[in-house]
Amino acid sequence: MPIAGVCLLSPATGGVSISAKLISHLSRRYPTQEHEPFHLEHRLFSDTSSQLPGSDVKQRSFTHVLNFSHDPQHAFVSSTKAGNSDKSSIVTIPASSASSFTGLIATKLQPAWYGRQMLSVENGVCVSIEEKGIVVCIGDPRTSPGSQGAGALRGTVVELFRREDVTSHSNDYTQEEAEEDQDWVRDALEDLFRGTDVAFNAKIFTDRTKPRRLDGTSGAEKEPDWNLAKLYMAVFRR
Amino acid sequence: MHELSLYGSIPVGNHDHLLQQLAGLTAMQPQAVHEIHVVFKGRQALGLEKVSGTVGGESAGTQQQQQDLQRLRTMLQSGVFYVQLIGSLLPRDNKRSTVTRQGSGENSIGWENQEVEWTFEFKDTPEAAKQSASTRLVSRVKFNQGDMVTFLDMFGFEYVKRYVVEGQRFYHQDTSLFLHRVRRLPAPRDNVSATDISDLPPWAKLPLLDASGTYILQAMVEIVDGNTQELRDRATGQLLALRDTLKSEVTLAQPDRLALDTRVPITRRP
């Protein structure tokens, strides 16, 4: 089954992005094929009551609105219930409606939801390495430009997609399988980027995802990639 | 988006005649509309008591903290609303109901294998300022896929009730004319989602909300930016012109503003 792993790396000292270093290392070391530019927008809300002083942060609920270029037609909206981040419900809306829906939440649904952050990745890069059967996407999520000027860099997001292989998984994605895949992704990333002195200590989120073409063309996918959307939401939740 | 509307009521006996008049005025056949409306109620915000209790209690935090607290208080105290999930039943075939065949639309609605397009609709309470037409903020977002009722529950809205709307729609310049009435639906059975329509009674057997069969005519103009006075004036002008044109058939007027109030009443905690 295709597996994707997503992690968020911290910026280098001084707040400098490491994405350029990672991308140039990959292009020098491997025969890569570049895909369409990678971009995403993630808006995160938490429940307003949990913002009060003295509230239990662990009991916080979240709502995410996510657009990304892996699925240009849809935007994903997900809400999680307090205290149990695994219990969530997700729906899709047209990608063009994402910003007006976010605006509605921010203006008319204030008793329930408090805007925590808005991140966007522009000009991210996706490359496939055919010999390894993987696609790597790298981008810099930044907060929206505010009155202080350019948006702050939150780090670098790295996604590794592994196409079908012969090992089969059971129908449920068990904890053991997830841990196995996380270890596999971490080893693969460290191997790919050996020599860049970038450490992959950050938490890696993995799940099964929809198949993707390694030649960079996109198939006519009508079914949204729910699991991939949930991975990005998990990475950006704070 | 803002919506400016005028409403009128039409006794069932005048329905056919008005359909003919509207078809003539708009130079189009009516578009049959069958919608299921599922109503959800926003949950009250928790934590209001925590905010009001801190005034003067703790020693003043920084100015920033005080401002943040004030902002949170304002957020928590702002209105909680009713919203709707509206499912448009897509026509099975391309035949549209014509003016002469009244009732053919209802008989062809069977619930099995019926495709539905769901839209999340938020409508604000109409503005209080004195105006010629009822004006309100409206936001509609299509929900494509996913378990919408569970999502709305996690999003902060609980299911209240559902009903269906049947009618015909016409378009005249920028105005949409919606001639419709409401029928009641049975409550969903336990463990069945409110958006599950597979097991509903035949449409024609659903009881009318208003037993006299009276229809409502809504004349409505949507404007993208409600803050532009010019757009508002143009929309109001169109509505008033339409009102005068249809004066002999139906009286279009502003409804009672509070009858369209979508806010959830605040319940005081004991």
> Any idea what the CATH architecture of chain B is?
Beta Barrel
Q: The CATH topology of chain B, please?
A: Hypothetical Protein Pfu-838710-001
Order of helices and strands of chain B: EHEHHEHEEHEEEH
The pLDDT mean of chain A sits at 87
Distance between the termini of chain A: 29 Å
Count of extended strands of chain A: 11
Helical percentage of chain B: 10-25%
CA distance, first residue to last residue of chain B: 38 Å
Low-confidence stretches of chain A: none
The coarse silhouette of chain B is globular
Number of helices of chain B: 6
CA radius of gyration of chain A: 18 Å
Proportion of strand residues of chain B: 25-35%
Stretches of chain B where pLDDT falls below 50 for ≥5 residues? Answer: 53-57, 94-106
Name the CATH superfamily classification of chain B.
Hypothetical Protein Pfu-838710-001
Radius of gyration of chain B over alpha carbons? 22 Å
Major sheet of chain B, described briefly? 8 strands, antiparallel, barrel
GO cellular component, one term (chain B): core mediator complex
Organism (chain B): Lithohypha guttulata
GO molecular function (chain B): transcription coregulator activity
Main location (chain B): nucleus
Q: Can you give a write-up of this model?
A:
Chain B: Pfam families: Med18. The complex is a heterodimer of chains A (238) and B (270). Chain A is of the alpha+beta class and 238 residues long. Chain A contains 4 helices and 11 strands; from the N terminus they run E-H-E-E-E-E-E-H-E-E-E-E-H-E-H. In chain A, strands 1, 2, 3, 4, 5, 6, 7, 8, 9, 10 and 11 form an 11-stranded antiparallel sheet that branches. The longest helix of chain A is centred in the C-terminal third of the chain and has 18 residues, at 175-192. The two termini of chain A are 29 Å apart. Chain B has 270 residues and is an alpha+beta fold. Chain B has a single domain, classed as Hypothetical Protein Pfu-838710-001. Helices cover 23% and strands 30% of the residues of chain B. Chain B has helices at residues 15-26, 48-53, 63-77, 104-107, 148-155, 229-245, and strands at residues 2-10, 31-42, 82-89, 116-123, 134-143, 157-172, 175-184, 215-223. Chain B has an 8-stranded antiparallel barrel with strand order 1-5-4-3-2-6-7-8. At the A-B interface, strand 5, strand 6 and helix 2 of A face helix 3, strand 5 and helix 5 of B.
